[in-house]
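Repro case for the chain-ordering regression, as requested:
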Amino acid sequence: MRQLADLAAAWDARPWGYSRAVWTLVLALDALPWPWGEEILARGFVARAFVRVTRLRRALAWAGAQPSTRHGVDGATARHALGGQRRIGQEAGGLRRWSLACSVCRHQGLFVARSALIGVRDPEALRRIVVARGEEHLAAAGPGAILLGFHLGPAQSYLVLRALGHQLTWVGGRGASPAWAPSIRDRFQREHGDLFYPGRAHVWERRLYKARQLLVRGEHVFISADGGGTEAFSVPLPGGRASLGAGWWFLRRNTKAPALPVLSHLEGRTQVVTIHPPLPPPLADPALDTEACREAIGTLLAEHVKQFPEQCYSLVFGLPSDEPPRSRQ
Amino acid sequence: MMNAITLERVQAIVARVAGPARSPAAPGPDTPLQEGGFWLDSASVLEVILACEAEFDVAFDPEMDFDEHALRTVGTLFSLIEAKRPG
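-- result from build under test --
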């Protein structure tokens, strides 16, 4: 059980972008055994969508733009199975759309809960609910690799990789949530040299300068590809587009370090973090380089969206605010 | 031999990174590096910093040097580089 002083400190450190109501709920639900708090928050986000209907409309629009998937009732299959009657097929398609829209809202709640590690008491408990795939790609990349995260699926893939024994430095706005259990913060956040510089001027210049030094020294860094700020290029996806930032792009071109996309999704209650093979090496011509990366990332993200449309909250609701606007890249 | 640090050379580096589309018509020491001047984003500011390090053989300390004032204009960047020069 969390100490009262620690709870008060967590309340005072409410992260940017969290309303008081959500933050209160996050801290209150942390007292429940895992995964009760996660489940309650997930259901709460579905209920909230029916109150704040703008969110529901967005989720429905997103769901309507997705081709028939494994999620819910497949429209084409339903039409075939039910004798090809158009009306019945439309109803099945409508059901699928509603089912996917509700699932998007539910997953957003799950991800908010998971980034606060609601109900996860210690490092061992964390390790039991995460798994990494594709680690062989990181081993093959050698020293000094850029691990490139995306806001699709549960956040904090860097924490998962660190919990599973990988040495890396996080470059970005939000590190440990104040809601994390102190033992998790102590083990996986303190003394890891993550590059935050909260509240400082030219925060991204500081982060990228240090990240470049680490890469040159042969250390791995983890940075979000789609964290907002200046856009390097974008990738069109069904129902939206992913905007890729200039920070990782600068690091990759400046250091020639291999950049390995890292995607994250939930399988049941387990967060699966998948390290993919590196992007093509940088080309001298920036335009050609952009095209090569756009194609590689576009293929990867399109497949991820197709497989896990219910987990792509950032394409539905926009990117979460990791830090105040003046600190963006 | 050490390269002479001049405002013109610093300005030329900034203009090269910004490119003609972002460079103002008549830049000077008071031209901001970012909004209302060369419109550099963070990655481009860093590109300028690294180019200056290479060109003038200086090394920056991001903890100490990257403050609001030092990276405000071409002139303040020039002063920062001069201050970093040994001797």
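Ordering looks correct now. The interface with chain A takes residues 41-47, 49-50, 60, 62-63, 66-68, 71 of chain B (CB under 8 Å).
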